[in-house]
């Protein structure tokens, strides 16, 4: 498949479409549906969810598909060739293995699983069935991150010396299901946001982390789980990285970027939410359903009402990414990257599809298609995902035991990853 910085070229023809189904049509999974339904190499054929309201809304929006009330029934559908697993974290292993054993290819949401033992069983199941397993939907698949890796590896500004990924969000104030607030079921900020930031760090730095030292923090009475972490990671070659996520919703990283304020909830709305949580009057279940498919705050509904024009990068939950090299730094610009060089700041403007956004989650779907249909490698394989999971679990262990944790299962990203991605040349830009 030919690919440009904007993703597949419109002239690309695909030998056939891959029929995909979705397991768990929630807030995260629902966000993937518009892409699944419109990417030319895919055909969205089915979904499964235990929630009847969600099933009904899914059928209203995608009447040419089928919907099931269990993942087992979805996996018994012989027309489904690949399953996107976006059920709650505690089901990732069970649902992925169910699909793999039924001969389906799988992309599993982050965290890939909630133990390394689960991750191993998933890798084994994929190996036995000869199907593709991708540890997916982390921010590392986003075009600006992939472009950042390309600039680093090009040597334009010398060797990578450090990576920092810092985020302040309102994650802890968003409506949550009980399992999202239970660390034993993969709830809380380290489980939910750690895989994004750590996967980004690994993709940018080559993959081979050596150790993790971290602290986590829990200081909100209404949500007695970790809403904060801060970790120092070291690569085998000595390159340092830091990841940080504060989900308590006071300051948000988006405030630092003038073009990134759209979508940030107002301070007034956050105060109201805080007060209702303190008073115990918030109906979280109803609130959360409003953000799922067909709800009044379904982001896909909002997107269709948004003014036309390309949507710029925003830090979203990932936060600010800063790659420091020997002779410069790299960070996100509204439509690409700022590359600070000896000759001053430059910008690489990434071409984006008409009506599209700089950040779209098509990377994992493209990798799925390429691996499942074209026989190319799955770079974010189960083994890659297990290495990210190892670092994420080590982060929590380090915080508990207050010591550095050495990692044992890291693998390198093969150098040919993203070989077809070509970047436009940088041009000078004023950043002050
Ligand atoms: N990558 C991202 O950017 C991103 C964003 C949000 C969520 N997520 C991931 O998506 C997953 C779900 O989180 P969410 O926020 O969408 O939560 P959610 O509660 O909105 O979605 C989970 C969905 O799964 C359904 N479900 C529950 N048990 C099920 C079962 N046994 N079989 C079938 N369906 C079942 C629920 O009814 C719900 O619709 C998590 O793994 C989370 O990490 C990823």
Entry keywords:
ten-stranded mixed β-sheet, alpha/beta, binds nicotinamide-adenine-dinucleotide, Dihydrodipicolinate Reductase, domain 2, disordered N terminus, 18 strands, 432 residues, single chain, Rossmann fold, 2 domains, six-stranded parallel β-sheet
Structure notes:
The protein is α/β, with parallel strands linked by helices and 432 residues long. Helix content is 32%, strand content 21%. It is built from twelve helices and 18 strands. It has helices at 27-38, 52-61, 71-76, 92-101, 116-129, 143-154, 189-205, 267-279, 284-291, 299-305, 363-372, 382-401, and strands at residues 3-4, 7-8, 18-23, 42-48, 66-68, 82-85, 105-108, 133-135, 160-168, 209-217, 228-235, 240-246, 320-325, 328-333, 336-341, 344-349, 405-406, 427-428. The strands form three sheets. Strands 17-10-11-12-9-13-14-15-16-18 form a ten-stranded mixed beta sheet. A six-stranded parallel beta sheet has the order 5-4-3-6-7-8, with helices on both faces. The chain has a two-stranded antiparallel sheet with strand order 1-2. Helix 4 packs parallel to helix 5. The chain is globular, with a radius of gyration of 21 Å. Residues 1-11 have low confidence and may be disordered. Nicotinamide-adenine-dinucleotide is lined by residues 23-29, 48-51, 54, 71, 86-89, 91, 109-110, 137, 177, 192, 288, 292.
Secondary structure layout:
Elements: E1 3-4, E2 7-8, E3 18-23, H1 27-38, E4 42-48, H2 52-61, E5 66-68, H3 71-76, E6 82-85, H4 92-101, E7 105-108, H5 116-129, E8 133-135, H6 143-154, E9 160-168, H7 189-205, E10 209-217, E11 228-235, E12 240-246, H8 267-279, H9 284-291, H10 299-305, E13 320-325, E14 328-333, E15 336-341, E16 344-349, H11 363-372, H12 382-401, E17 405-406, E18 427-428
Parallel strand pairs: 3-4, 3-6, 4-5, 6-7, 7-8, 9-12
Antiparallel strand pairs: 1-2, 9-13, 10-11, 10-17, 11-12, 13-14, 14-15, 15-16, 16-18
Helix pairs in contact: 4-5, 5-12, 6-7, 7-12
Bound molecules: nicotinamide-adenine-dinucleotide.
């Amino acid at each position: 498949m030919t690919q440009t910085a904007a993703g597949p070229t419109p002239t690309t023809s695909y030998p056939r479409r891959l029929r995909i189904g979705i397991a768990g049509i929630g807030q995260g999974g629902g966000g993937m549906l518009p892409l699944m339904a419109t990417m030319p190499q895919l055909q969205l054929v089915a979904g499964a969810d235990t929630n009847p309201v969600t099933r009904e809304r899914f059928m209203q929006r995608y009447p040419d598909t089928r919907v099931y009330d269990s993942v087992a029934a979805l996996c018994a559908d012989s027309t489904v060739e690949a399953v996107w697993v976006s059920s709650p974290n505690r089901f990732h292993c069970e649902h992925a293995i169910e699909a793999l054993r039924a001969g389906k290819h799988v992309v599993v949401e982050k965290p890939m699983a909630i133990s390394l033992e689960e991750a191993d069983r998933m890798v084994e199941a994929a190996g036995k069935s000869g199907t593709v397993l991708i540890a997916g939907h982390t921010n590392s698949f986003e075009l600006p991150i992939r472009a950042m890796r390309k600039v680093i590896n090009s040597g334009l500004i010398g060797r990578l010396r450090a990576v920092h990924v810092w985020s302040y969000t309102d994650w802890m104030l968003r409506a949550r299901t009980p399992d999202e607030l239970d660390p034993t079921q993969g709830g809380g900020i380290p489980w939910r946001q750690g895989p994004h930031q750590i996967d980004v760090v690994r993709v940018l730095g080559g993959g081979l982390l050596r150790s993790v030292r971290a602290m986590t923090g829990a200081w909100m009475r209404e949500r007695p789980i970790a809403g904060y972490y801060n970790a120092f990671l070291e690569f085998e070659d000595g390159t340092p990285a830091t990841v940080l996520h504060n989900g308590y919703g006071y300051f948000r990283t988006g405030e630092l970027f003038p073009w990134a304020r759209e979508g940030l909830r107002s301070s007034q709305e956050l105060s109201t939410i805080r007060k209702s949580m303190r008073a115990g009057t918030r109906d979280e279940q109803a609130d959360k359903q409003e953000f799922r498919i067909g709800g009044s705050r379904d982001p896909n509904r909002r997107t269709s009402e948004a003014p036309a024009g390309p949507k710029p990068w925003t830090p979203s939950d990932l936060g600010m990414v800063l790659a420091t090299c020997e002779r410069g730094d790299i960070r996100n610009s509204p439509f690409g990257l700022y590359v600070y060089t000896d000759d001053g700041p430059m910008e690489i403007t990434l071409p984006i599809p008409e009506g599209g956004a700089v950040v779209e989650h098509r990377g994992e779907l493209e990798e799925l298609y390429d691996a499942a249909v074209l026989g190319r490698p799955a770079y974010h394989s189960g083994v890659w995902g297990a290495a990210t999971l190892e670092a994420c679990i080590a982060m929590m262990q380090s915080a508990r035991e207050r010591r550095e944790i050495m990692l044992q299962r890291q693998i390198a990203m093969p150098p040919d990853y993203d070989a077809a991605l070509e970047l436009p040349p940088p041009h000078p830009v004023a950043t002050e």
